[in-house]
Amino acid sequence: MIILGIETSCDETAVGIVADGTTLISNVIEKQTDIHSEYGGIIPELASRQHMKNISNAVKKSLINSKLDWSDIDMLGVTDGPGLAGSLIVGVNFANGLSSSLGIPLVGVNHLEGHVFASWIDNENINEISFPIMCLIVSGGHTDLVKMNGYNDYELLGRTRDDAAGEAFDKAARVLGLGFPGGPEIEKVAAKSNEEFLFPKAYMKGTDDFSFSGMKTALKNLADKELNNLYEDFKLDNFEFTVNKIANSFQNSMVEVLAKKTIDISIREKCKGIILSGGVAANTILRDVLKDSSPLPVFIPPKILCTDNGAMIASCTFFKIREKISKSLFLEPIPNKSW
Ligand code: AMP
Ligand code: MG
């Protein structure tokens, strides 16, 4: 079954085509980084306007890349939430239009569930493990720890009580004067340092939740204490060295908390494996630490399938159809859709 998936929940206009939920055929992602980086964060109004400009071409490009035409597409899937209302509306309405004009059934997909299914794409090993699987979804808008007991059977165990992990990286980068999105920028400069400041790690003992605001405040205090004088005194080499060291300390604390909590809770819950996904899963240190320290098998999609994409939505659509847990409807966006 060939499925075309559309994703516009935030600032990527993305369209993917996947066969049988597992074989990637095409993956078009139109980013809006240049537009939002000027503001250091995503401006919802600009995001939805840009989706409107991009969506038609992204769908066309996806078909051209796949060398397929509409008669080959069996099913459509679209992210209907959670996400920015104005962004979701563009993808959902476009998908409704395609479905009604072409007569192809359409399924609404939870964006976070989509992130989980990125691990089923071009990855035969995933079929070797059985449920339950622990899923850590770390993105710009979410940090959710979800126990997957089966297809369409999710238990939300923990989530962030304040910033999402990606949001914390973005804000940390802004304090350090680095670019947007902040995660890759922090990773880049942290790689130049192997020194660390003493930095807090919020384990939130006794709960499965996360909290990143303390680490963010620690970074701000450290930047105020260590950087301001260097800048005023034009000690620019020292300034760069210190920025790199602060970034390295922050990244290591974030990674340690995310990896250790996920592994401990997975063992407690007798999980058979761990899935890591979402934009922050593109972080090399997080990928390596989780894989190296977990006694359970760890599945992490390639970086291009960790950040928002349409292929993961197409894959998730397949499994919803296969498990007969979806029917095609005229969809409406659900910005606060939950598990
Ligand atoms: P998403 O919301 O899934 O599109 O992911 C976007 C978020 O992932 C942003 O907050 C980015 O800063 C973050 N991100 C992307 N790449 C990295 C990275 N290499 N390290 C840490 N965070 C990252
Ligand atoms: Mg996402």
Write a structural description.
With 339 residues, the protein is α/β, with parallel strands linked by helices. Helices cover 45% and strands 18% of the residues. The protein has eleven helices and ten strands. A five-stranded mixed β-sheet has the order 3-2-1-4-5, sandwiched between helices. The longest helix has 33 residues, at 236-268. The radius of gyration is 20 Å and the shape is globular. The protein folds into two domains: 2-118 and 304-322, 2-Layer Sandwich (Nucleotidyltransferase, domain 5); 131-300, ATPase, nucleotide binding domain (Nucleotidyltransferase, domain 5). The structure holds adenosine monophosphate and magnesium ion. Adenosine monophosphate (AMP) binds next to helix 5 and helix 6. Adenosine monophosphate binds at residues 10, 139-141, 166-167, 169-170, 181-184, 187, 278-280, 282-283, 307-308.
* Ligands: adenosine monophosphate, magnesium ion
At CATH level 3, the topology of the largest domain is Nucleotidyltransferase, domain 5
When the domains are counted, the total is: 2
CATH top-level class of the largest domain: Alpha Beta
How would you characterize the largest beta sheet?
5 strands, mixed
- Spatial strand arrangement across the major sheet: 3-2-1-4-5
Shape: globular
The unreliable regions are none
What's the mean pLDDT score?
Answer: 94
In terms of structural class, how would the helical and strand content be classed?
Answer: alpha/beta
Order of helices and strands: EEEHHEHEHEEEHHHHEHEHH
Secondary structure: helix percent: 40-55%
